[in-house]
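Hey, can you fold this one?
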Amino acid sequence: MTDNEDQVAGLLLAAGGGRRLGGRPKALLEHRGHPLVEHAVAVLRAAGCARVHVVLGARAEDVRARAALDECVLVDNPDWEQGMGSSLRTGLDSLTGTGARAALVSLVDQPGIGAEAMARVRAGYRDETSLVSAAYAGVRGHPVLLGAAHWAGVAATATGDRGARAYLREHAAEIALVECGDVAQPYDIDTEADLVHLE
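Sure. Predicted structure:
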């Protein structure tokens, strides 16, 4: 493993309770015969992330019991109901002191974003000041790569369901956009209607 490989950790946000899905946690939705959280971890690994931290929240014990998440660092977010921002803060906090110099942040409910898009964004990593984002027809989306120099700033502004949005807006000039629209579809699994995207 090269040093560069070890410096970018995968950070999977998988704590959501699926409020608009009748309270089914998104991590446990089935996709290609496996829980969505397993699929998302496999994508991060295929993109080259040897270290993967998974933030759990809704029905965390069920997720631990039903999903094969060996060799991942599982991080519980007791405040998951406050939204994605709290999970992002919890996840970045869990990476502090691990030697990771950047986090490739992925959302469990975006199975249309595969390893190729993840690897493109990851390849934009230069050092801990890096800010890299996937773009779809020029519009910023997921995944995003957050260099460690930005973690404190992101954590300070990550509230509700906004995640890193406010921070990234303030630092738009520093973000390297990587077009991924040719290899990925950035839909979310948020409502019953979105379940058609699962296979």
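The CA atoms of residues 40 and 108 lie 6 Å apart. Let me know if you want another pass with a different chain boundary.
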